[in-house]
C-alpha cells in the first residue's frame, strides 16, 4: 500500500458574510506523486494551498502531511513541506546566498552545515554566479529560481508550487519543467502544482484534481483527463528557420513560414512529445500559444456537467 503524502478531509473555509471559499473538500496525494491542482481564477486553489502551508486559517477539517496532523504537530508537518508562492516575496536588498543561509537557519542548520547543499542548489538552478548579487538586480526568472531554491534548502519531502512559471518565457518555463521533473523522478519528492497552463500540468503531472467554486469536481489521472479533450491547435515559433518538419505520432504540423508552424494534437496526445522530438532535432522553441484555451473549455464542460 502506497504511503499518503497529503491527506485532506472535509476541509472548509468560510469568510465573513457566510462566503464559502472551500466547501467540504477531501483529497489524497500519494508519496512520490506529481499532482496538479487546476481551476479557474477564484476557484479555491490558492486558499487550499494557503491552508496546507499554514498561511491561511481553516474553518474546519483535517489535514495530514505524511501522517502528521498539522494542528497537533505544526512544526514537524511544516518541516516536511517546501512552498513556492505565486507572488515574489523576497527581501530586495539581501544577496542571493544570504537569503538561502537565513532560510537554512530557520530550520536549525548552521552556515557550515548548509553551505554544501545551498551551493548545489545554486548550481542546479543556474544561480551560482549571482550568489553575491542583491535580489532587486535579478531578472524575474532568476527571482523565481531563487524562490524554488529557498523552498528546498531544508530538503523537504513535499514541494508545493503555486503558479511557478507565471509570466516566464517558454525557454525558462521548460528549463524549470525539467528541473521539477528531475526532482520528482530522482529525489522522489512529492510535488503539488497549481497552474493555468495545461501544457505544464500534462508535461509533468500524473494525477490531477480540478476545483471550481471551492468544490473538487474532478479527481483523476492526467491520462484520463486528456482523453476527454478533442484535437487542440497551437501556434509555435522557433529560434532558427525550420528546415524539416518532424514526424510525430498523433500530431499534425503545418508550416506557416520559416519560423512558425501550426500544430494540431489528436485526443490523448501529450504536448510533451513535441518538446522531446524538437529537442532531439535541435530545434529551439521560443514561443508556444493556444489557438483557443482548451483548459477553459474543459472547465466549462466539467462545470456544466457538475450542475446537472
Automatic annotation (TrEMBL):
The keyword Ribosomal protein does not apply. It comes from the Bacteria. One of its GO terms (molecular function) is ATP hydrolysis activity. Its EC number is 3.6.3.-. The keyword Nucleotide-binding applies. SUPFAM superfamilies: P-loop containing nucleoside triphosphate hydrolases (SSF52540). Residues 6-238 form the ABC transporter domain. Pfam families: ABC_tran. Keywords: ATP-binding, Hydrolase, Nucleotide-binding, Transport. InterPro entries: AAA+_ATPase, ABC_transporter-like_ATP-bd, ABC_transporter-like_CS, ABC_transporter_ATP-binding, P-loop_NTPase. This is ABC transporter ATP-binding protein YadG. It comes from Candidatus Portiera aleyrodidarum (primary endosymbiont of Bemisia tabaci). The lineage of its organism: Bacteria, Pseudomonadati, Pseudomonadota, Gammaproteobacteria, Candidatus Johnevansiales.
Amino acid at each position: 500500500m502506497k504511503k499518503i503524502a497529503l491527506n485532506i478531509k472535509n476541509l472548509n473555509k468560510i469568510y465573513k458574510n457566510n462566503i464559502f471559499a472551500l466547501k467540504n473538500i477531501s483529497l489524497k496525494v500519494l508519496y512520490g506523486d506529481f499532482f496538479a491542482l487546476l481551476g479557474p481564477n477564484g476557484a479555491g486553489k490558492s486558499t487550499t494551498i494557503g491552508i496546507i502551508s499554514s498561511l491561511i486559517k481553516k474553518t474546519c477539517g483535517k489535514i495530514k502531511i505524511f501522517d502528521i496532523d498539522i494542528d497537533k504537530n505544526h512544526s514537524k508537518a511544516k518541516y516536511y513541506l517546501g512552498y513556492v508562492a505565486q507572488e515574489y516575496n523576497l527581501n530586495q536588498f539581501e544577496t542571493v546566498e544570504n537569503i538561502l543561509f537565513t532560510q537554512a537557519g530557520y530550520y536549525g542548520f548552521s552556515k557550515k552545515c548548509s553551505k554544501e547543499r545551498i551551493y548545489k542548489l545554486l548550481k542546479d538552478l543556474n544561480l551560482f554566479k549571482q550568489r553575491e548579487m542583491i535580489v532587486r538586480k535579478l531578472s524575474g526568472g532568476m527571482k523565481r529560481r531563487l524562490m524554488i531554491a529557498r523552498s528546498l534548502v531544508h530538503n523537504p519531502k513535499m514541494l508545493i508550487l503555486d503558479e511557478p512559471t507565471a509570466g516566464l518565457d517558454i525557454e525558462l518555463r521548460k528549463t524549470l519543467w525539467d528541473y521539477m521533473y528531475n526532482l520528482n523522478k530522482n529525489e522522489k519528492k512529492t510535488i503539488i502544482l497549481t497552474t493555468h497552463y495545461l501544457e505544464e500540468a500534462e508535461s509533468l503531472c500524473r494525477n490531477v484534481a480540478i476545483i471550481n467554486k471551492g468544490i473538487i469536481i474532478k479527481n483523476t489521472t492526467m491520462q484520463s483527463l486528456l482523453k476527454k479533450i478533442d484535437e487542440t491547435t497551437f501556434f509555435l515559433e522557433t529560434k532558427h528557420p525550420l528546415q524539416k518538419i518532424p514526424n510525430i505520432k498523433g500530431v499534425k504540423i503545418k508550416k506557416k513560414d520559416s519560423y512558425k508552424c501550426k500544430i494540431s494534437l489528436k485526443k490523448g496526445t501529450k504536448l510533451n512529445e513535441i518538446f522531446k522530438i524538437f529537442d532531439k532535432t535541435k530545434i529551439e522553441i521560443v514561443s508556444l500559444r493556444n489557438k483557443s484555451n482548451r483548459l477553459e473549455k474543459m472547465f466549462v464542460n466539467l462545470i456544466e456537467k457538475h450542475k446537472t
